[in-house]
Amino acid sequence: MPELSFHLWPDVGDPEAVEFLVAWLPPDNMLELFPNLRVVFSVGAGVDHFDLSAFPPQLQLVRMLDPGIAQGMVEYVTLGTLALHRDMPRFLQQQRQQQWQAQPWVPAQQRRVGVMGLGNLGRAVIAQLRSLGFQLNGWSRSAHQLQGVTCFAGWEQLPDFLQQTDLLICLLPLTAETRHILCARNFNHLPAGAALINAGRGGHLQEEDLLAALDSGQLGAAMLDVLQEEPPGYSHPFWQHPKIWLTPHIAGVTSHDSGCDVLLDNVRRFRQGLPMHGAVDLSRGY
Ligand code: GLV
């Protein structure tokens, strides 16, 4: 897009000419710095790190709907789903104890996988898991219809969804409503021994509740890509926990190539007065 001039912070050129800002978290005084700013693009898929109540209402905020993030998420969740489905945490522990011990095999068709969050990431993950034959449930705030997926919507249907979920995958946006949705009350609706993958945000998980659920056997294992505090402190109990796999927030990362294509497409759309992909509804929070 050679007609669009581009500056890399802190070289901003003429601040009055700046219409678009691409950032993880822009400064609070962005309108003072750039009085003609029109759109803020988050470089990430989530915008939970923004204080949306203080976001200038005259600006548009757009989150990153990058196919590269979706592909990364599909790979990560498929890896985790297959590993937990095939009992890998237990086999790794057995290996360390030099135990050669088979465990009963459950075919994918009998494993109920529940995906929380049916936006572009949830749907991409579901398409891949469907091809592997898992029984699929989906839960989201509003009603969806997805081929081959039993869809649940809203808080009233959350217990039903959880009761039918052996492996719970959280890909929700973090909002005031979804904060701590992964908590004891909801874990208790899952069948005993269920597994968890959290690739949403650390704020979704009530961390002490996870430890208690793993200790009691209510949960069998957890794979976590996100934590309340990243990186966790040295004494954080998750580091050494035998039933927890931790990864350092790498599940779905914005790809430079495809992320730029998405960004430039949105700039063109904005210039043509078309709605941008990933435009955030400030009142909804995503
Ligand atoms: C990463 O977590 C992102 O929001 O893209």
Structural class of the secondary structure composition? Answer: alpha/beta
Largest sheet: 7 strands, parallel
The side-by-side strand order for the widest beta sheet comes to 6-5-4-7-8-9-10
Q: What characteristic shape results from the CA principal axes?
A: elongated
Q: Under CATH, the topology of the largest domain is which?
A: Rossmann fold
Give me some keywords for this one.
7-stranded parallel beta sheet; Rossmann fold; 2 domains; alpha/beta; 16% strand
List the helices and strands and how they pair.
Layout: E1 20-23, H1 30-33, E2 39-42, E3 60-62, H2 67-85, H3 88-96, E4 112-116, H4 120-131, E5 135-140, E6 149-153, H5 158-163, E7 167-170, H6 184-187, E8 194-198, H7 207-216, E9 219-224, E10 244-246, H8 256-271
Parallel strand pairs: 1-2, 2-3, 4-5, 4-7, 5-6, 7-8, 8-9, 9-10
Helix pairs in contact: 2-4
Explain what you see.
There is one protein chain. The chain is α/β, with parallel strands linked by helices. The protein has 2 domains: 70 residues, Rossmann fold (3-Layer(aba) Sandwich); 180 residues, NAD(P)-binding Rossmann-like Domain (Rossmann fold). The protein is 28% helix and 16% strand. It has 8 helices and 10 strands. Helix 4 links the parallel strand 4 and strand 5. Helix 2 packs across helix 4. The chain is elongated and about 65 Å long.
